[in-house]
Amino acid sequence: MLRRFEGKYKSGLHLSATMVLSKGILKLLVTLLVATALAGCHDQAEQVDDPDGEAGNTDPTDGGDDDPVDRNMPPEKGSSLGAAERASLQALYDDQPLSDSQSPWPAHLLKWVSEDTFIGTHWNDDDPAQATELNWIVVGKKGVFCSEDRPGPESEWRHFHSYDAPGYPEGHGGEPGTEGYWLLHIAVRDFEAEWGAVSPGVDTKFMHTPAPSCGGDLQSHKDAADWGGEGGSSVAGTGWGAVYDDVPLSDSQSPWPAHELKWVSEETFIGTHWNNDDPSRATEMNWIVVGVRGSFCDDARPASAEHWRHFHSHDAPTYGEGHGGDPGEGGYWLLHAGVRDFEAPWGDVSPGVDTKFMHTPSPSC
Hints:
Layout: H1 2-18, H2 20-23, H3 25-48, H4 83-92, E1 108-112, E2 117-123, E3 134-144, E4 159-162, E5 179-187, E6 191-193, E7 196-198, E8 201-202, H5 218-224, E9 259-263, E10 268-274, E11 285-295, E12 310-313, E13 330-338, E14 342-344, E15 347-349, E16 352-353
Antiparallel strand pairs: 1-2, 2-3, 3-5, 4-5, 5-8, 6-7, 9-10, 10-11, 11-13, 12-13, 13-16, 14-15
């Protein structure tokens, strides 16, 4: 467009020159001034298009600063779980919280981690042995089917499943006050579910079972609840580290204190976070984790920003120096979900997404 405009301008200049004798020298001077201005604009356009970058930074993504943000990604990529890895992971989850009439729980493998809570894996086949990918990790909490008993926001704790039902499909939801389990599903990769596209993070559309209000009857429902003696205990010291055996960080930060991690796709890993920097000495599991490769920029944070509280740099001199980083630095966005009630340095933690976990405010890049 600029070149077309310049061509028109040159034609006008020629006509102006031919009119000097009749119109006077003043118009010629005006025309020459316009020519100078257009030449300057043309020079600026040539600088913007300069392939050698001599005109300085013109990257629209960095706000026009002299130092453009270099959005890095960690060099390490993961992979989907292989057959042997899937079998080893699945072997850890060997509990069945439902009544015999609903066993096995399709696509799920579960493990009690406290008297009232379990964690789980949810696969892409009703028979996990035939699965090829892990879709979600799960937190389950004992409760009754009353809206007042939901452990957290309805957008997170979407699904309730009755402990006792004639068959598994009949266990979705239940009568008011029915005993069972509130479930939180956290997607671990990008995939397509029945309700649409799913990305890493809390699945806010997972099989919603709207709960009734029980009002003043809530406590009586809870007192009457009977799970047939089902309950669990800590899983500390049971060899999870032999399965969760990946270390995404640089060697200078290894091992990752309190964490045991496992890649489940090229871009994501899952993990456990224990109550001791040395998991072999832990007595309780505190959180389950999803990590996503990314850069330290606010607009690079995975969706539902309040859930992805912490960023850890891939490369840092020490682990302690890896919290956060420089704008655009490569590393991992982390979501931590509590699996039991306990006290953390920032306050009480309950089952569900820990929205206070080690916040690293991210810069705008």
